[in-house]
Amino acid sequence: MNYQTFAKLYDDLFDEDAYADWQSYAQTHVHSKTGKLLELAGGAGRLAILLKQHGFEDVSVFDLSPEMLSLAAEHAEEAQVDLPLIEGDMREWSDLKQKYTTITSFADSFNYLANTKEVLATFKQVASHLEPNGQFLFDVISPWQTDVYYPGYMYNWHDEETAFMWSTYGIEDMPHTVEHELTFFVYNEDIDGYQQIQEIHTERTYDIETYQRLLKKAGFKDIQVSADFGRSEVTPESDRWFFSATKA
Q1: Are 243 and 137 contacting, i.e. CB atoms less than 8 angstroms apart?
Q2: Do 222 and 137 contact (CB within 8 A), yes or no?
Q3: Quick one: which of 63, 79, 35, 239 has its CA closest to 150?
Q4: Fold classification of 143-202 (topology level)
Q5: At the fourth CATH level, which superfamily is domain 4-141+205-245?
Q6: Given this model, what pLDDT does residue 4 score?
Q7: What region, left, alpha or beta, does residue 146 occupy, with left being phi > 0 and alpha being psi -120 to 50 degrees?
Q8: Within a 10 A sphere around the Cβ of 169, how many other Cβ atoms?
Q9: How high is the mean pLDDT of the chain?
Q10: How confident is the model over 126-131, as a mean pLDDT?
Q11: How far is CA 213 from CA 55, 95, 125, 138, 184, in A?
Q12: Within a 13 Å sphere around the CA of 103, how many CA atoms are in the beta-carbon half?
């Protein structure tokens, strides 16, 4: 196996069961399968393809990473589905004139934004690209996840050609914020040895009231919050929150 990009390695390792859970959440909570749906920060397109395969007629993927969008194109071709791809920054995409019936964003995408200013800017972009009474669905990790579960978390995995190490740390003086150190060791036949690929990912979250306030400020109403992919009510130990809101 030749040297691979981090995007390809991350895509290969991602838990497929999570995509099935997000797809199930969308099936239950999205009001319209016939309208235009945009998967914001949709990465390699795996969820978007599942949505297409389960009856959503018009799905597009928006992502910042050209490497991820290249993988999305490959996956769409393999699945034989039409999947329009858009490259851009979720904080500023005014050049995109299309309006959507539904916009979704899962897999912690909003937790990678640096502060509430960036979260609000993205919420406003979402609102401006929704049709009247359009629907917005997204998830975030909770403060319980950042403050209790993640600090000190470690996960290791390997096969014959690749090893993966994931370590997570809390960040002092930064509330509800963690840093993930992700390291791959990949066999590279060109050098007949292992090559290290490493990235640091920072995630930050806020309390439910902050997300609700920012959504209202961006122009949303009918805000609903649940846990466990929409199957449960929120509790103090919920690791992930799911928001559904309507453009005011």
Answers
A1: yes
A2: no
A3: 239
A4: N-terminal domain of TfIIb (2.20.25)
A5: Vaccinia Virus protein VP39 (3.40.50.150)
A6: 53
A7: alpha
A8: 15
A9: 93
A10: 98
A11: 33, 26, 16, 15, 39
A12: 26
